[in-house]
Amino acid sequence: SRHLLGIKDITSDDIQLIFETADNFKEVLNRPIKKVPSLRDITIANIFFENSTRTKLSFELAEKRLSADVVNFSSSNSSVKKGETLIDTVNNILSMKVDMVVMRHSSPGAPHFLSRNIKANIVNAGDGTHEHPTQALLDAFSIREKLGDVAGKKVAIIGDILHSRVALSNIFCLQKLGAEVMVCGPVTLLPKHIDSLGVIVEHDVQCALAWCDVANILRIQLERQQIKYFPSLREYSLYYGVNKKMLDTLDKEIVIMHPGPINRGVELNSDVADSEHSIILHQVENGVAIRMAVLYLLAGVR
Ligand code: CP
Fold first, then answer.
1. What number is the ipTM of this complex?
2. How far is the CA of 254 from the centre of ligand 1 (A)?
3. In the chain, what are the domains?
4. What's the predicted TM-score (pTM) here?
């Protein structure tokens, strides 16, 4: 495909190809000279209609390491504030001869809509509660790096599954790679269609930790809650917050992941986030190599 819109649309072979390409780029990123000329004639626009720290910087660094020309757009200080539409905004940016668009938007399906209306390659950097494909790729790549393989591993995704695009993309990606996936959270924060996703559902976080090899811990997405969901943050942290005491009761070592941003003391305590169990900053590091791989492979089908 010319686009990366979601993990649902790609195969396990596609994911393996992205990982092998990312292995090469990770090696490049560890050299004194981190830059390669691969995308020298390509111009990429990073179009963000929602806040971001990791994804935005990681894509921009990936593009610069590949020698692409890069322009950045944030809706919050743009003419969107004067009423310009998504399609007009993007078409204006594209008329400046942009080849690829990396887009984050609060509406599920926004990059899919765009892909039917513009000629450039599109990479989804997160569309509302729907998908965040490069996050799932970097997460699975980090599990593969830490544990040798993803196939056969037990991964528990703990938190606000209902509002999380990271959860949905992770479920698709991990299942395609042969992992067993559990979701764990209060019933009010699980989607109604959860039974159709082929995951194990657990409501007790200690049981989820005892079951898994890897716990991927998600924050409560207050900004996406249309109505006020039960539980409150205080109640959530009381029943679901992961701390060192909980890990100490296990008879094994588990890997702790979090896509960021962490709400310390809510879903995850600092005594775990900053411990030797955590690969959180390795996930961020791997994000650059994964995004280089995705951009490089998509540029090849231009
Ligand atoms: N993981 C992630 O998407 O973080 P940002 O929202 O900061 O990009």
1. 0.98
2. 23
3. 7-132+284-300 (3.40.50.1370), 133-283 (3.40.50.1370)
4. 0.96
